[in-house]
Amino acid sequence: MHHTDRLPASAGLPAAPAIAHARFAIGDVVRHRMFDFRGVVFDVDPVFSNTDEWYDSIPEGIRPDRDQPFYHLLAENMEQSYVAYVSQQNLMADDSDEPVDHPAIAGLFNGYADGRYRLRREHRH
């Protein structure tokens, strides 16, 4: 092939998934739209990245689309603290301006201001 010849962009390449933009970032405090819990984002998956068993355990009527960002949360409700995995469509910004009470926060974050946690320097990349 001569250096001026060009292959079409799609030649032999797999189709790329639609790009979904994450609405929330690490350190954001969010609230679930349907269930009474809130949490702080500590990781973001651009698309679903959990097990099929986990996904299939969600009732079909409320099962979210896989092709959207999913968020790992240090979550809390009135009874307990836990880790949650939630689709973007089921989250909204939490405007309570209250910190999240989760024992793992101090290990990942150092500082809370304006509804966000600041990731510890050693966890940034």
Descriptive overview:
Helix content is 7%, strand content 30%. The chain has two helices and seven strands. A five-stranded antiparallel β-sheet has the order 4-3-2-1-5, with no helix packed on it. Strands 6-7 form a two-stranded antiparallel ribbon. The longest helix is centred in the middle third of the chain and has 5 residues, at 52-56. The chain starts with 28 loop residues before the first strand and ends in a 6-residue tail after the last strand. Mean pLDDT is 88; it is low at 1-5.
Structural key phrases:
125 residues; mainly beta; 5-stranded antiparallel beta sheet; two-stranded antiparallel ribbon; globular
Strand content: 25-35%
How widely separated are the two ends?
Answer: 40 Å
Reported for the largest beta sheet, the result is: 5 strands, antiparallel
Radius of gyration: 19 Å
Name the poorly predicted regions: 1-5
Mean pLDDT: 88
Element order, helices and strands? EEHEEEHEE
Please list the strands of the largest sheet in the order they lie side by side: 4-3-2-1-5
- Measured as a percent range, the helix fraction is under 10%
The assigned structural class equals mainly beta
**SS element count, helices:** 2
- SS elements, strand count: 7
What general outline do the C-alpha atoms trace? globular
Blueprint of the fold:
Layout: E1 29-32, E2 38-45, H1 52-56, E3 70-76, E4 81-87, E5 91-93, H2 105-108, E6 109-113, E7 116-119
Antiparallel strand pairs: 1-2, 1-5, 2-3, 3-4, 6-7
